[in-house]
C-alpha cells in the first residue's frame, strides 16, 4: 500500500470519528435542552421570525433561520433563542416576549458596537447607566419614558455578567444578540435576566406608545407595508419582462407601498437562452455544441390609480423640448400626447427632477416601470419615495382630466 493511500485512509477514519463525536455532542446538547422542558427545532420555518423587522431582521432578501430553542422562563414568559442569517449578518439572538407592541429602541453597552443597519436618533444616556452606553430611538420622548430606574438597574446587572450588551425592542419582543447558547447552564440564568428587563419595561406606563400588531409575514425594516412573496411567476404574463429565451421564472418578489404612496412590485426575472456553436479543427473536422446561458434582470413597477397616457422620462435620445434649457440638457422626455407631457412636466416638476435625478421610468397605462440596475432594499425605497412625490407634483386638473375628482397624492 502506498503512503498516499495510507494517509487517505487515516484522514477518512479521523473524519468519520470527528463527525460521530460532533453528532453525539449535538444529541447530548439537545437532550439537555429538552430535559429543561425546552423545545429544540433544527429546521424552523420563517414564521419564527416573521413578526420581527428590526436589524438584524428586516434586511435583505435571503433570510435563513436555523437552530431554534423555545420555552418559558421561570416566571412563564415565552422566550426564543435562534440562529439567524442574511446577506448582512449571521449569528445568534435571544428574545423574550413583552406585554405590548412598542416602538423600536436600541441600547448597547460594554464592549459592543451599535447594531449595523439601524436608522435611529441617538439620545442622552440616563445618568443611572453611567458611561459606555448608547441609546437610539425614533422618538426621544419614548426613550425618556422607557428607560426607568428599574430598567437601568437590570441593564447594569446584565452587562456585569458578559462583555457587552446589544439590545433592542422589536414589536412585542425584547431582542438581545449573542446569547450564551452553547451551555444551557449559562443560558437559563441569562434568559431570567432578560425576563427581568422585560418585566421592567412592562411595569413602565407606556400604553400611549402601543403600536399596531404586525401581520405574521416577512417584512422590512422601517417599511411596515412591504412584504416578502418569494416567487410569483404569474408576473411573467403581466409585466414588461424580456420575452425571448426559455425557462422564465421570478425570484425575490417584494410587494408593498410606503405610506400613502403607490403600491409596487419588485422582483428578479431569470431566464435562459440556448445557441448552437460550430467549430472546425485543423484537420477540417466540424463539431457542434449547444451553449446555454443564464440571464437575469431586475423589475420595479408602481401601480397607478387610473390609466395615464404613455410618458417616458430618461436621459438619452431626442425628446420633447421644454422651456428650460438646463432640463433639456439633462433629460429626454417622450410622450404619445405632448400636451399631457407639458402638463405633467411643468417648471416645478422640472426643478424636482433635476434635484432628485431618478432612475429612468416609463408611465404606461396603470403602471410606471423603472429602469433599475439592481434589485435591493435601497433601490426600491429611493424610487418609491421619489415617485410618490413626482405624482404629487402632477396638477389637480390633470387628474380630473383622466377621471379622478382630485389628486390621489397631495403635496406633503
From TrEMBL:
The chain crosses the membrane at residues 6-24. The keyword Transmembrane applies. Residues 239-259, 273-293 are annotated as: Disordered. Keywords: Membrane, Transmembrane, Transmembrane helix. Residues 244-259, 282-293 have a biased composition (Basic and acidic residues). It comes from Kribbella antibiotica. This is DUF3137 domain-containing protein.
